[in-house]
């Protein structure tokens, strides 16, 4: 049996939507220690469903302001998250959400790998205030 890969898009209306595995890449040029892959869709423009992604941080961090919720589930390592003066430390199996309309700061002193969901963003409001840093 062969499968025909679909491009990452929201629900197609078919019985099963399939997204073949892709490799993680640096989030941006000049941010070599922050890698990700968006699994079911890219967070550009409006979206009504959850967006699923995988991230790796190696002794680095970033911050951003986003109009949607962001939930991180740690698979490996240790992830620190700070928002509105509160900091949590996540280890494998832990999860935390930064709620919509907040500035979130995320960092791994050594290494972290996590799965992340972005909540719906039906208005297509853009994230901003991006800042990358190395530890």
Give your account of this protein's structure.
This protein is globular. It is built from no helices and nine strands. Strands 1, 2, 3, 4, 5, 6, 7, 8 and 9 form a nine-stranded antiparallel beta sheet that branches. It is an all-beta fold and 135 residues long. The relative contact order is 0.25. A hairpin with a 7-residue loop joins strand 1 and strand 2 (34-38).
Kindly summarize this structure in a few lines.
With 135 residues, the chain is an all-beta fold.
State the low-pLDDT regions, or none. 1-6
Strand-and-helix sequence, N→C?
Answer: EEEEEEEEE
Number of DSSP helical runs: 0
- Strand percentage, roughly? over 45%
Report the principal-axis shape: globular
Structural class: mainly beta
Tell me the total number of β-strands. 9
Mean pLDDT: 91
Rg for CA atoms: 15 Å
Taking the alpha carbons of the first and last residues, their distance comes to 47 Å
Helical fraction:
under 10%
The largest β sheet comes out as: 9 strands, antiparallel
Topology, please?
Blueprint: E1 25-26, E2 34-38, E3 51-66, E4 70-77, E5 79-83, E6 86-90, E7 95-98, E8 102-118, E9 128-134
Antiparallel strand pairs: 1-2, 2-3, 3-8, 3-9, 4-7, 4-8, 5-6, 5-8
């Amino acid at each position: 049996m062969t499968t025909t890969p679909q491009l990452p898009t929201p629900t197609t209306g078919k019985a099963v939507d399939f997204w073949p595995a892709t490799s993680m890449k640096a989030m941006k040029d000049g941010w070599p220690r922050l890698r990700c892959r968006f699994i079911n869709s890219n967070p550009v423009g409006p979206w009504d469903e959850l967006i699923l992604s995988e991230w790796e941080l190696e002794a680095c961090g970033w911050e951003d302001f986003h109009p949607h919720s962001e939930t991180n589930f740690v698979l490996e390592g240790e992830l620190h998250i700070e928002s509105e003066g509160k900091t949590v430390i996540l280890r494998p199996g832990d999860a935390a959400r930064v709620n919509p309309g907040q500035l979130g700061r995320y960092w791994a002193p050594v290494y972290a790998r996590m799965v992340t969901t972005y909540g719906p963003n039906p208005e297509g409001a853009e994230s901003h205030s991006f800042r990358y840093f190395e530890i």
